[in-house]
């Protein structure tokens, strides 16, 4: 029975990978090739840039989805904490490979460390009577300290390998990394869709959620675990230091104009998509770090929306005031003209 299940699982994974390869090369790849011919932009036809754009688009979906819940729960900086501990996870993987001559994936160790950290943060908040920001600061600094110790323990031998994870890189986005992000997009989107109502309830009023017999702890832990998944999946392009930006900045942008929670999620995704497409393009054009380029683009989108929102808010008032001044001036001119006629 176990052997049959294992074979069935392997066959299912092979089928899914075959579907992904077809999508990446025959469907998405062909579309990008044609788009490159139509627009005359060569980079759109390069396979590694096609993977980079697809990965970035996925990041702009899963980041704002999870980030919207975190920001409204006032736990936005948990992304920063998990990214720094994911750095420790990457360092653990590279350290093991360098010390024992293995080929363990640093992403796998980063996933394990980030998930454990996410659950640890929730435990500290629930049972240690520690404020959330204090818990985050303790875990953040501890994770980064472990990572730095492991790097120096090998005389800096793994420092070169960790650079791509620290700052992000378009060239290092492999087919497997893209597949991971596509899978994470489906997983995060599916889980949030299924658990949307209790997650919203817990986010805005945990006390009322407990009264309604919703398992608050379970949904809080679910959200931090999803955050860990997002952080580790996105750090290949964003870098561990800047990955938190995609959890916060698009959400802040959407909050300027959104009228409801669902609208906030949709607009945050839209803002994120603008940021990653601009950021990846600029990163390739000027040969700069992809993560930094995407973050600056996201901040630029935020600043643009903020300026337009303020302009839209002030324009009707200024128009009315201008109309009132003109009307008053015409009234004064008419009074003067009437006085002149009587004389």
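^ Assign residues to that structure.
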């Amino acid at each position: 029975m176990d052997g049959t299940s294992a074979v069935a699982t392997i066959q299912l994974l092979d089928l899914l990978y075959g579907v992904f390869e077809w999508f990446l090369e025959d469907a998405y790849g062909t579309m990008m090739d044609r788009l490159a011919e139509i627009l005359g932009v060569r980079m759109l036809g390069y396979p590694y840039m096609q993977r980079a754009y697809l990965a970035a688009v996925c990041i702009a979906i899963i980041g704002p989805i999870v980030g919207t819940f975190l920001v409204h729960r006032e736990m936005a900086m948990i992304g920063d904490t998990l990214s720094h501990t994911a750095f420790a996870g990457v360092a653990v993987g590279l350290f093991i490979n360098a010390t024992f001559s293995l080929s363990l994936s640093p992403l796998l160790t980063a996933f394990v460390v980030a998930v454990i950290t996410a659950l640890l943060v929730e435990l500290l908040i629930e049972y240690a009577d520690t404020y959330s920001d204090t818990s985050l600061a303790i875990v953040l600094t501890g994770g980064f300290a472990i990572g730095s110790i492991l790097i120096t323990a090998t005389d800096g031998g793994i420092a070169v390998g960790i650079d791509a994870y620290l700052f992000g890189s378009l060239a290092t986005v492999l087919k497997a990394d893209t597949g991971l992000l596509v899978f994470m997009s489906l997983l995060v989107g599916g889980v949030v869709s299924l658990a949307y109502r209790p997650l919203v309830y817990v986010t805005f009023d945990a006390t009322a959620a407990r009264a309604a017999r919703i398992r608050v702890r379970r949904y809080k832990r679910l959200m931090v675990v999803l955050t860990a998944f997002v952080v580790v999946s996105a750090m290949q392009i964003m870098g561990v230091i800047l990955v938190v930006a995609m959890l916060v900045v698009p959400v802040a942008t959407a909050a300027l104009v959104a009228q409801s929670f669902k609208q906030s999620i949709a607009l945050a995704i839209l803002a994120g998509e603008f940021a990653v497409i601009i950021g990846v393009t600029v990163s390739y054009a000027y040969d700069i770090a992809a993560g930094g380029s995407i973050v600056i683009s996201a901040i630029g989108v935020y600043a643009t929306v903020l300026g337009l929102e303020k302009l839209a808010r002030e324009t009707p008032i200024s128009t009315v005031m201008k109309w009132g001044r003109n009307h008053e001036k015409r009234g004064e001119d008419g009074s003067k003209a009437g006085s002149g006629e009587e004389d």
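DSSP finds 13 helices and no strands in the chain.
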